[in-house]
Amino acid sequence: MTLPGRGLTRRQFGAGLLSLVPAAAGASQASSEAALPVIDTHAHVFHRGLKLAAGRRYAPDYDAPLALYLGQLDRNGMTHGVLVQPSFLGTDNAYLVESLKQASGRLRGIAVVDPAVSADELRALDRAGVVGIRLNLVGQSLPDLAAAEWKALLGNVKALGWQVEVQRNAADLAVFAPQLLDHGVTIVLDHYALPDPKLGVADPGFQSVLKLGATRNVRVKISAPYRNGAAGEDFAKAAYPLLRGAYGLDRLLWGSDWPHTQFEASQSYQKNRQFLDALIVDKSERAQVLASPYQLFRF
């Protein structure tokens, strides 16, 4: 089977990803697909002893430490993970950096930074395993990317080869994402791009997000369907084939969203991993989605 709009067969795609993995990792595997990495691109780690950001909208009353997350990866057959700085910790990425170092290369990080952060600070994060910045813009004003500090930040992000991960509703992403693209950065959109839950795939903003697939410089996380309303799983099943057609399997990223902040009572790592099996029934196709972030996150 040829991947949508990409001219690659599944076997060719898998072989290409396998070439990115150290030979020893796949030496004992009978097939290339069995040897592909299995990557969770969205999780958070924290504990209650950390300093919380001023103006935060929410803070959990429990601990989600690194050791607990690594255990989730092991139990669910994940080879790699990506830690996203929680918004309630603000720009203090110390625990994120510490966790990356302790994981010895198994994890990568997405940091939250002040727009005025220095290039030296960004380079230090880069050496620690950070590969991008996150803009959680839910409930906030959209930044003026023409301002000098934002131009400088995005220029540094581009120079480092980092990504910009954005959490915002689809209607605003339709306007904001093209502005980011004008700065030459790679974009990752969180949680199916968060369309209006009442409109789902019919949301004009979501339709605009689909068109961004043609840029080849935008990726979408098929993560946390529950953040798209009570019918989030039904929405995800309707959205996935549209996203697959618009972006191709190589630009869709799966994330567990562990520990599912504000949805802890109804969600678990295993439940979200199992939902992926229901979302992408074809095992080979699912393996490609789980492996495709390998190069983007520089594993």
Distinctive features:
eight-stranded parallel β-sheet; TIM Barrel; 8 strands; globular; 12 helices; 299 residues; alpha/beta; disordered N terminus
Could you give a quick summary of the protein structure above?
The protein is of the alpha/beta class and 299 residues long.
Describe this structure in words.
The chain is α/β, with parallel strands linked by helices and 299 residues long. It has a single domain (33-49, 58-296), classed as Metal-dependent hydrolases (TIM Barrel, Alpha-Beta Barrel). It is built from 12 helices and 8 strands. It has helices spanning 10-18, 23-26, 66-75, 94-102, 119-128, 148-160, 170-181, 204-211, 232-247, 269-279, 283-291, 293-296, and strands spanning 39-43, 80-84, 107-111, 130-136, 163-167, 186-189, 218-223, 252-255. The chain has an 8-stranded parallel beta sheet. β5, α7 (170-181) and β6 form a beta-alpha-beta unit. α5 (119-128) runs parallel beside α6. The two termini are 27 Å apart. The model is unreliable at 1-30 (pLDDT under 50).
